[in-house]
């Protein structure tokens, strides 16, 4: 099924993306990993939460495709996927475009309503008036 140009699969991917970005800790992890790859243990040291909690945040980011993890020895290194950030940008651009089109249509309808329907196809009010006994 396609809704607003998105298949179910694409929509699910966008849902995962925005779910991942909805949390401040995950956005911060993403920002830290943009600067360079970091181990999960180093990331965990930066937050007032357990290692397991940070690991879960990284997993959400990974499922959304925003980061990748690579095991090197005992460490799991996390890095941001720049293409995924581009996909997030594209999804936002598409949403903006759809909403701008809707707002433009609403503005057009409101403008027509404000004109009293006096567009080029509106009837001439003088043509259909019933003349009284004096006229």
Structure commentary:
With about 140 residues, the protein is α+β, with helices and mostly antiparallel strands. Helix content is about 55%, strand content about 15%. It is built from 5 helices and 5 strands. The chain has helices at about 10-20, 25-35, 40-45, 50-65, 80-115; strands at about 1-5, 5, 40, 65-70, 75-80. It has a 3-stranded antiparallel β-sheet. A two-stranded antiparallel ribbon has the order 1-2. Strand 1 (about 1-5) and strand 2 (about 5) form a beta hairpin. Helix 1 (about 10-20) runs antiparallel to helix 4 and helix 2 crosses helix 4 (about 50-65). The protein is elongated. The protein starts with a strand and ends in a 21-residue tail after the last helix.
């Amino acid at each position: 099924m396609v809704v607003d140009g998105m298949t179910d699969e694409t929509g699910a991917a966008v849902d995962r993306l925005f779910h991942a970005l909805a949390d401040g800790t995950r956005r911060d992890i993403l920002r830290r990993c943009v600067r360079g790859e970091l181990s999960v243990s180093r990331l965990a040291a930066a937050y007032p939460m357990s290692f397991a909690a940070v690991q879960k945040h990284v997993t959400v980011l990974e499922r959304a495709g925003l980061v990748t993890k690579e095991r090197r020895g005992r460490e799991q290194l996390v890095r941001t996927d720049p293409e995924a950030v581009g996909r997030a940008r594209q999804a936002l651009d598409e949403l903006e475009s759809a909403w701008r089109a809707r707002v433009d249509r609403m503005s057009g309808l409101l403008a027509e309503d404000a004109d009293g329907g006096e567009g080029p196809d509106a009837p001439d009010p003088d043509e259909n008036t019933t003349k009284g006994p004096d006229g």
